């Protein structure tokens, strides 16, 4: 993907309020429990196509990014939680593992998505394949289109609320080591900028 930094796509995927602008299949999504700086448990429900019953998930989500903020990983797997039992009108689906990998490159952003899910309930195989292809493809296309507008939108919508950018202890240590290692490079760049003026 050209012209969209990996960091922006990462933020778009994480931000539950902005997700409503690009995920038109989402019915509801909310945080159930914040485990630590890089792990949470959340609820997500979607409107299914055709005559298929709507699905919902309770997933544990984990994430990581490098100190340079150029490489990002988000992955999920289903997790039972006493605060969110199965509810009427939805079939509780199960994610064995799903996630995203994003990396900024010279040509733009390298982006991967994978999903290993059980939709549960009774659905013909052809219908599962069709629905998965249609839904995932449509959601990813929409994510790419809406990513460009994210930073401007976020500046007006709870700009300080970005828990997915917090660092845990080992990430802080990584960042400190990275900053110390590249302090000379930064000073050299600043000197060059001053000389240009």
UniProtKB/TrEMBL annotation:
Coiled-coil intervals: none
Domain of life of the organism encoding this protein: Eukaryota
Positions of the UniProt region annotated as Disordered: 175-197
SUPFAM superfamilies listed in its UniProt record: Bet v1-like
Pfam family, one: START
Any one GO MF annotation of this record: lipid binding
Sequence ranges assigned to domain START in this UniProt record: 1-152
GO cellular component: cytoplasm
Protein name: PCTP family protein
Organism per entry: Entamoeba histolytica HM-3:IMSS
């Amino acid at each position: 993907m050209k012209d969209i930094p990996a960091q922006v796509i990462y933020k778009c995927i994480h931000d539950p309020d902005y997700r409503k602008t690009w995920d038109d299949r989402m019915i509801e999504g909310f945080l159930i429990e914040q485990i630590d700086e890089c792990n949470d448990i959340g609820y997500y429900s979607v409107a299914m196509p055709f005559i298929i019953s709507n699905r919902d998930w309770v997933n544990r989500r984990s994430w990581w990014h490098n100190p340079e903020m150029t490489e990002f990983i988000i992955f999920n797997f289903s997790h039972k939680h006493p605060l969110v039992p199965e509810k009427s009108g939805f079939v509780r689906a199960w994610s064995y593992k799903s996630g995203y990998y994003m990396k900024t490159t010279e040509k733009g952003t390298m982006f991967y998505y994978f999903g290993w899910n059980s939709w549960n309930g009774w659905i013909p195989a052809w219908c599962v394949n069709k629905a998965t292809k249609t839904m995932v493809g449509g959601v990813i296309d929409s994510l790419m289109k809406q990513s460009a507008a994210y930073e401007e939108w976020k500046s007006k919508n709870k700009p300080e609320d970005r828990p997915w950018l917090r660092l845990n202890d080992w990430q802080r240590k990584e960042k400190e080591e990275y900053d110390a290692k590249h302090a000379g490079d930064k000073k050299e760049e600043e000197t060059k900028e001053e000389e240009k003026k």
